[in-house]
Amino acid sequence: MTPAETPKLIYPLAFEALILGFLVIAGGLWLGAMGNAYGIFSIFGASVLILLKIRNVSTRVTEEGVSQLTFRGRVHLSWSEVTQVTRTPLSFTLAGAERRLVVSVEEFADSAAAISYMESHLPSKLRSN
């Protein structure tokens, strides 16, 4: 497959979720300033959701492998390093000797094509078909 055929993320939806998260944080800051404990909880919850969404939005699936932005910077897992795959209807968890990446297939413009692309690049012993 050429790079043009690699799965594409749905950026508008992801960025809308990030903007919503930032609005929740802003509301939480306002509630916190008013002495309301719910403000602190909303800030914490929205921060966690934003961090998870950034991981999903930063996922890159290429001919070489999968990479994501994490707390430790961008982490890459090549297809040849994958030793275990866990599949759910919404995600692929790819595990190697040193790292594990969760790829949310619902974030791609064509989920079925993303799944097919990843399956075709996995080591042959790990493919589902």
Return the CATH topology of the largest domain: OB fold (Dihydrolipoamide Acetyltransferase, E2P)
Q: What low-confidence regions span 5 or more consecutive residues with pLDDT below 50? A: none
| Spatial strand arrangement across the major sheet | 1-2-3
Name given to the CATH architecture of the largest domain:
Beta Barrel
Structural class: alpha+beta
- Give the total of beta strands: 6
In this structure, how is the largest beta sheet organized?
3 strands, antiparallel
**Global morphology:** elongated
The first-to-last residue Cα distance is: 18 Å
Helix proportion: 40-55%
CATH class of the largest domain: Mainly Beta
Total domain modules: 2
* Number of helices in the DSSP assignment: 3
Characterization of this structure:
The structure is a single chain. The two termini are 18 Å apart. With 129 residues, this protein is of the alpha+beta class. The protein folds into two domains: 9-57; 60-129, OB fold (Dihydrolipoamide Acetyltransferase, E2P), CATH 2.40.50. It is 43% helix and 22% strand. Helix 1 packs antiparallel against helix 2 (37-57). The protein has helices at 11-33, 37-57, 111-121, and strands at residues 60-61, 65-70, 73-78, 84-87, 91-95, 100-104. The chain has a three-stranded antiparallel sheet. A three-stranded antiparallel sheet has the order 4-5-6, with no helix packed on it. The model has no long low-confidence stretch (mean pLDDT 77). Strand 4 and strand 5 form a beta hairpin. It has three helices and six strands, in the order H-H-E-E-E-E-E-E-H.
